[in-house]
Amino acid sequence: MSHKFHLRVYYEDTDLAGIVYYANYLKFVERARSTLVREADIDQNEMKDKLGVVFTVRRLQAEYFAPARMNDELWVETTVHLLSGARIVFNQDVYRDGVMLFSGIITVACATLDGKVSRFPAEIRAKLAKADL
C-alpha cells in the first residue's frame, strides 16, 4: 500500500530556468511524510512536548529523472519500506502524469530533544505500523 500526496508547482518552487529547483523536491517529500504522520493520528508537537522525542532525517538518497515546471500537478507516493524500533525507511517518488520525476529513500530516526538517537515510543510505533497507507 502507499500514501499519495498531491501538490501543484508554484513560481516560488522554480529556478531561473523555470524548472523546480532540486532542493524543493526534498520539501515536497517532507510535506508528504508530515501528512502521512498526521493521518496516522500522530501529533508531532505532542510527541515532542509529552514524550520528549522528535523525528529526524538520518539519511537521504535522491535521484532526479526529469524536471517539473511551474503549474504542474504532481503527486508524491510514499511507502514504508522498513519500520524498526529506532528507524523508518521511506521510499518516496514524485510523479507528473504517471512519469516519475524524482525518487528518494529517506531514513528517519527518533531522537530526544538533546539530539540523541532513541527508540520510538511504543504508541508511536504502533500508530505507524497500523497506518492505512
3D structure, described in words:
By secondary structure, the chain is an alpha+beta fold. It has a single domain, classed as Hotdog Thioesterase (Thiol Ester Dehydrase, Chain A). The chain contains 3 helices and 6 strands; from the N terminus they run βααβββββα. A hairpin with a 3-residue loop joins strand 3 (73-83) and strand 4 (87-96). The longest helix has 16 residues, at 24-39. The N and C termini lie close together (5 Å).
What secondary-structure arrangement, pairings included, does this model have?
Blueprint: E1 3-8, H1 24-39, H2 44-51, E2 53-64, E3 73-83, E4 87-96, E5 99-112, E6 117-118, H3 122-129
Antiparallel strand pairs: 1-3, 2-5, 3-4, 4-5, 5-6
Report a brief summary of the structure.
The protein is of the alpha+beta class.
CATH superfamily: Hotdog Thioesterase
Strand percent estimate = 35-45%
CATH topology: Thiol Ester Dehydrase, Chain A
* CATH class call: Alpha Beta
Number of strands: 6
CATH 2nd-level architecture: Roll
Parts with pLDDT < 50 across at least 5 consecutive residues: none
Q: Please compute the radius of gyration using only Cα atoms.
A: 16 Å
- Please summarize the sheet with the most strands: 6 strands, antiparallel
| Classification by helices and strands | alpha+beta
Count, helices? 3
| Mean pLDDT figure | 95
Order of helices and strands: EHHEEEEEH
Distance between the termini: 5 Å
Categorize the overall geometry: elongated
Oligomer: single chain
Structurally, how many domains make up the residues? Answer: 1
Percent range of helical residues: 10-25%
